[in-house]
Design brief:
- By secondary structure, this protein is an alpha/beta fold.
- The protein is 35% helix and 14% strand.
- It is built from five helices and five strands; from the N terminus they run βαβαβαβαβα.
- The chain has helices spanning 16-24, 56-66, 84-93, 120-132, 160-179; strands at residues 3-8, 34-37, 70-74, 107-113, 144-146.
- β4 (107-113), α4 (120-132) and β5 (144-146) form a beta-alpha-beta unit.
- The radius of gyration is 16 Å and the shape is globular.
- It binds flavin mononucleotide.
């Protein structure tokens, strides 16, 4: 059993990425594992002047990440990169220097876009950040998901056309997490 933090890079109420992330946690491969969604909308804009006195939502995010076995980032692509809210969350929990909550935590990167390249460029930028943060990140399979009717069923599960592929991605990520357990 693993405890996984899910970070969704969209604050939109009807976010496709949020819906997809929730469906991901309902896949058979998720069974027996704990998934906790991080509340990144509550975080302040990162300000280095606050490093010595971090706001409670920052402390809460860092504690949550530290208590986990791994992190899944489910993110849209904004202007060919990651959304600012996601970078803000990453920056907040990475500081003060030497006290990053992310270090060593296995990461999975996945995302949903209305566009044909399915967040590929956003994910590539995110991988660059995660490498610097020393997060061992699932390399393959890659998962670039395009939003289409039927991706999520009315009851909030991954549709049958995608469930096999996405379930395989989740299994590969959870195996990476297992390999990094002490
Ligand atoms: C500011 C902004 C920039 C966007 N840039 C891209 C982009 O570079 N590539 C892309 O495929 N979609 C882009 N989109 C469209 C998003 O894929 C779409 O809005 C998607 O629904 C966002 O994810 P969400 O539903 O989880 O909020 C952009 C949307 C916004 C609001």
């Amino acid at each position: 059993m693993s405890k996984i933090v899910v970070v969704v890079g969209s604050l939109r109420a009807e976010s496709y990425n949020r819906q997809f992330a929730e469906a991901l946690t309902r896949l058979p491969a998720a069974s027996g594992h704990e998934f906790v969604f991080a509340d990144i909308g509550a975080l302040p804009l990162y300000d280095q002047d606050d490093d010595g006195d971090q706001a409670q939502p920052v402390k809460d995010l860092k504690a949550l990440v530290r208590s986990s076995d791994g992190v899944i980032f489910v993110t849209p692509e904004y202007n060919r990169s990651i959304p600012g809210v996601l970078k803000n969350a990453i920056d907040n929990a990475s500081r003060p220097y030497g006290d990053s909550a992310w270090a060593g935590k296995p990461a999975g990167v996945i995302g949903v876009s209305v566009g044909a390249i399915g967040t590929a460029l956003s994910q590539q930028h995110l991988r660059n950040v995660l490498a610097y943060l020393d997060m061992p990140t699932l390399g393959a399979p890659e998962a670039f998901i395009q939003w289409k009717d039927g991706l999520i069923t009315p009851d909030g599960t991954v549709g049958e056309q995608s469930a096999g592929f996405v379930g395989g991605w989740l299994e590969a990520f959870l195996a990476l997490v297992d390999r990094h357990k002490d």
